[in-house]
Specification:
Blueprint lengths: L2 H10 L7 H15 L4 H11 L3 H18 L5 H15 L11 H4 L3 H18 L7 H5 L7 H19 L7 H17 L1 H15 L4 H14 L13 H10 L5 H16 L4 H10 L16 H23 L3 H24 L5 H15 L7 H17 L7 H6 L2 H27 L1 H17 L6 H14 L5 H6 L4 H10 L8 H13 L2 H5 L4 H9 L9 H18 L7 H7 L1 H7 L2 H4 L11 H10 L6 H29 L5 H18 L4 H7 L1 H20 L4 H18 L7 H9 L4 H18 L4 H18 L14 H22 L15 H14 L3 H18 L12 H19 L8 H21 L1 H14 L4 H12 L3 H19 L7
Length: about 1000
């Protein structure tokens, strides 16, 4: 063993026993050898004499790399040497002399595959111009036996993978090379190769079925582009079907033959000859195979063949024009469809998606036919049977899905994804044949109800899921009126009590289906008691599974929102039914359960609020109902607060969780009451909410640092602003002071969001409160937020920085809300003036540099509003000394000129275009307010610094002084692009 072989062995070693330094030296030495001029000779020599597979692989890999990279620079002699040597190894030449190429052919599969790859690289460069006889010379060598035949198959497979197959992305150069190779093979050698395939399969079918399988797999790849007559003839086609239908042969060989027939079926052809070809196959010969062993590889392949055949027939029928031409395809389709349906229902194979695509295409052809023929109606029913069988859960997962453990969650997620295409198909069928679909769903429900309770969980769930999914294919009007059989189906659904209703999956889909068809009840009020019973008994809110009961609460709220006018006579009954549910909501047992953000159980209070918040409920009853709910909840909170004061501690998590639940309940309850009702027609109700607000605000005093409680109380304040309107004002000063006591970024963000809501609702009425708060807000925020942007690069994406960035973003919104609601005078109060300069600097930096164009737009709008508020007409008295000069000299130059000249200002971006419009508007406003003072500085000083010509400056002045804003925008954009082009990106405008 010489040094090169040792180096190769060391570099391939993965045992960890080799020293890393030695391994690096070995890799470097191997690489050094690769760079030598005689590397091809070195590799060929090693392949002839060395039987170490690592060395063989390295040599073949190196040859492959050298050919791909250096082929054009190789000498004629070197190319000839490599060509003859590789061909000699690939076809077993020299077996009887001292040549040892046999070792490569007897090596592992990956060695033979690599040799095939090297030969294909040569074919890529040399066939047919330089090496025209590569295939013609290869075919005679196939008589040497299995080893050469196997190698030839590997070469053909590699040629397909590396060059011909369109399953991989190809460059234009590779596409041209593929066409060149295929054209030459068609003219020269394809017929010989196909004849060799036939002879080999005929000869070895009994003695070496694995070899025959390999030959047929190679042949399958080439059928798409060779002359179809070479395969579809009186010799080869009968051989393929004989292989498929003979029981004694291995499944692998039979499956390979099926693959070839599928390739024939899938070949692109004009529709008329294609139909003749498909008809000649007599595909019904293989129908019986799918019923023999539904789990075998052969059945899987036959199922794919039947699906492919049906797809091609359907495609031909679409491309044929006359009815006479379509007759034969429809006969073929009617013949194969029962087997396709059987495959989908009974075979555990991975062909469902392609089969669903075919069925969707078939249903699509029915849309133009009205009415459907008897045969098509029969097929619709079979398609529905297929869908029904496919969407059923496997009973082995029943317990997992009920407990929703890890396995259950995975299975549910898989099935949700799997069902998507099937439900799309169902909706298509429902649109084409609504009556058939509705009858099928009714029969499925009847069958599910009648079956054994132990066995019908999956059956019921599937039937309900069909009904639920079908709802997407019909209009709101059809659901409301109950068109067709829906008039029977919806009442049947509402009145049914399935024996397996305790199952989580069944209960959930049952409730979702009721909700989907709830509009039916608007027109059929006799169903109201049935709807209420379904939601309020053990099928819904009283279901033993907490996930179901909470989902029921949410869906009941949605139903109430829609039906509330119809529910007035039932309010008393509903409240009595929900008493225990309401009481349980704030118990420790309930609060200790894991809460979901969207379905935490509080929706039951929102539903109650919607019911009792209607003006149709008499005031006395409304007061009675609301008091019965609010009084015990507030008393619970007061007792917890009193205990906390006495104990002087932050209390246990359970108590805090209980208070949290109570706030959520009251908050949800209040959503049913409008501002008009509580402040106008029934102020007594408003008083009850004010008293509740009094109690809940004490939580901020007793638990100032408990973040979950603070968030929930803040959320309730938001709600009371909308509900109580101006009557919430007396509570605001103390509340806002209490919330402002905490200055952490996240809490400050929530505080500013609340202030934004208050400003948007009350406008200038909030002036005095805001005037008191703003200096404190500015003092805290300007001390912690950097004025010139945040650091970037490694280590800059910390949670602390992200919180500060969110705070800054919220601050921009806050300042924008203040200025756009006529409250900019707040910035000019004696206590606020000290923060005017840092605010301006921060806004200016953001207007020029912020990465978010929406933020930049907001900052420019703030400047525009401040200019309008604080600056009179030209030569007027300055309301804010120094502001005018700051705007003209700094804002105009940096934001309106330099920032748009920067290459990062991308006009193709929609948000940037909106920002640009605001910047042009700012210039117009500055001219209107400052007149020549603005023009002189901007045009005489700023423009020259940006190398703007006097001619362009004069045109700008003309456009600015005109009244056409759109013309000004277009000109200014053109001006900016001209200045950028002049500088060619070399000038940094800052």
């Amino acid at each position: 063993m010489d040094d090169l072989e040792k180096a190769i062995l060391i570099s391939f070693d993965e045992s960890g026993a080799i020293d890393s330094v030695l391994k690096s030296q070995a890799v470097a030495y191997s690489q050094q050898i690769k760079e030598t001029a005689s590397i091809c000779s070195i590799c060929i020599e090693r392949l002839r004499v060395c039987n170490i597979v690592q060395v063989q692989f390295w040599c073949l890999q190196t040859l492959h790399e050298v050919l791909r990279v250096r082929y054009s620079s190789m000498s004629h002699e070197e190319k000839s040497f490599v060509r003859s040597s590789v061909f000699s190894m690939a076809c077993f030449e020299g077996i009887n002399d001292k040549n040892n190429s046999v070792r490569v052919l007897e090596g592992p599969a990956y060695i033979k595959n690599k040799l095939a790859q090297v030969l294909v690289t040569l074919i890529y460069f040399e066939y047919p111009l330089i090496w025209p006889l590569v295939f013609v010379d290869y075919v005679p060598h196939l008589s040497k036996g299995a080893a050469v035949i196997d190698m030839f198959c590997r070469v053909l497979n590699a040629l397909d993978d590396e060059l011909i197959s369109l399953d991989y992305p190809r460059s234009a150069e590779e596409m041209a090379a593929a066409s060149r190779v295929k054209d030459a093979m068609r003219q020269q050698c394809v017929s010989q190769i196909v004849r060799a395939w036939y002879d080999i399969v005929s000869m070895y079918r009994n003695s070496d079925p694995d070899l025959c399988s390999g030959v047929l797999d190679s042949m399958r790849r080439y059928i798409s582009w060779v002359d179809i007559g070479l395969v579809v003839n009186d010799a080869f086609l009968p051989l393929l079907f004989e292989l498929i239908l003979v029981d004694g042969l291995p499944d692998q060989l039979r499956s390979a033959a099926v693959g070839c027939v599928l390739a024939v079926v899938s070949k692109r052809m004009d529709p008329k000859p294609k139909i003749r070809l498909l008809q000649s196959l007599q595909i019904n010969r293989v129908f019986g195979l799918v019923a023999k062993d539904s789990d075998s590889e052969l059945v899987s392949k036959v199922a794919a063949l039947l699906t492919g055949y049906a797809t091609e027939v359907l495609d031909c029928s679409k491309r044929l024009n006359s009815e006479d031409d379509v007759g034969v395809p429809m006969e073929l389709l009617n013949e194969v469809l029962p087997s396709v349906f059987y495959v989908m229902q009974n075979c555990e194979i991975d062909t469902t998606f392609s089969t669903v695509q075919f069925l969707s295409g078939y249903v699509a052809t029915m849309k133009s036919l009205s009415p459907l023929r008897e045969q098509q109606l029969l097929h619709v029913g079979q398609i529905l049977e297929v869908i029904h069988s496919q969407i059923r859960y496997d009973p082995i997962y029943r317990d997992n899905l009920d407990k929703l453990d890890k396995i259950g969650r995975e299975e549910e997620g898989r099935m949700v994804e799997f069902r998507k295409d099937l439900f799309v198909l169902l909706r298509s069928v429902g649109r084409v044949a609504p009556d058939v679909t509705q009858i099928f769903i009714r029969n499925s429900l009847d069958s599910a109800v009648a079956s054994s309770a132990d066995r019908n969980v999956e059956e019921v769930e599937a039937a309900l899921s069909l009904f639920y999914a079908y709802g997407e294919s019909i209009s709101d009007e059809a659901r409301r009126t109950g068109s067709g059989h829906l008039r029977e189906l919806v009442p049947l659904l509402l009145s049914t009590r399935f024996p397996c209703h305790s199952s989580r999956l069944v209960a959930l889909v049952y409730l979702d289906t009721i909700t989907r068809y709830i509009k039916f009840v608007l027109e059929h009020t006799e169903c109201v008691p049935m709807v209420l019973a379904a939601f309020l008994d053990e099928r819904g809110i009283r279901h033993p599974n907490v996930n179901v009961s909470r989902r029921a609460s949410y869906l009941f709220m949605r139903a109430v929102r829609l039906l509330k006018a119809k529910l007035v006579p039932f309010v008393e009954t509903i409240l009595q039914s929900l008493q225990d549910t309401i009481a349980q909501f704030t118990t420790i047992e309930c609060t200790s359960k894991e809460l979901s953000a969207s379905e935490d159980g509080s929706h039951i209070f929102e539903a109650i609020g919607l019911l009792i918040g209607m003006e149709d409920v008499p005031l006395e009853k409304q007061t009675e109902y609301l008091s019965a709910l609010l009084t015990p909840l507030c008393q619970q909170v007061e007792a917890s607060l009193l205990n906390a004061k006495i104990q002087n501690s932050e209390e246990s998590p359970a108590k805090i969780a209980t208070i949290q639940q109570i706030i959520m309940a009251i908050n949800a309850l209040s959503k049913g009451f409008s501002e008009r009702l509580v402040t106008g027609s029934r102020p007594a109700i408003g008083l009850m909410f004010k008293q509740t607000l009094d109690v809940l605000l004490q939580i901020l005093v007793v638990f100032p640092k408990v973040e979950p409680l603070r968030c929930k109380v803040t959320s309730f304040i938001h709600r009371m602003v909308d509900t109580l309107g101006t009557s919430v004002f007396p509570y605001l000063p103390k509340t806002l002071e209490q919330l402002l006591a905490e200055s952490e970024p996240k809490k400050m963000v929530a505080f500013l969001v609340l202030l934004n809501q208050l400003i948007c609702k009350f406008n200038t009425a909030l002036h005095d409160i805001l005037e008191q708060l703003y200096p404190k807000i500015a003092s805290r925020i300007f001390n912690i937020i950097p004025r010139n942007g945040f650091p970037s690069g490694p280590g800059s994406n910390t949670e602390e920085i992200r919180e500060l960035q969110e705070l800054q973003q919220t601050l921009y919104t806050f300042l924008h809300v203040i200025t756009t609601h006529d409250l900019s005078s707040v910035f000019l109060s004696p206590k606020s003036r000290g923060y005017l300069d840092p605010m301006m600097q921060m806004l200016l930096y953001a207007a020029c540099n912020h990465k978010d164009m929406v933020v930049r737009k907001s900052c420019v709008q703030i400047f525009v509003r401040l200019i309008k508020d604080w600056c009179n007409k030209p030569y007027g008295e300055e309301k804010v000394p120094g502001f005018q000069s700051f705007v003209i000299e700094t804002f105009a130059t940096n934001c309106c000129l330099y920032s748009v000249l920067d290459k990062s200002f991308e006009f193709r971006d929609a948000h940037t275009l909106v920002l640009f419009g605001e910047i042009v508007l700012a210039q117009k406003v500055m001219y209107e307010k400052f007149g020549n003072d603005f023009l002189v500085h901007f045009v005489s000083k700023s423009f020259p610094a940006a190398y703007c010509s006097q001619d362009l400056a004069a045109q700008y002045c003309q456009k600015l002084q005109g009244n056409d804003m759109e013309a000004l925008k277009l000109f200014y954009r053109s001006l900016v692009e001209t200045l950028r082009h002049q500088q060619n990106g070399s000038h940094v405008f800052r």
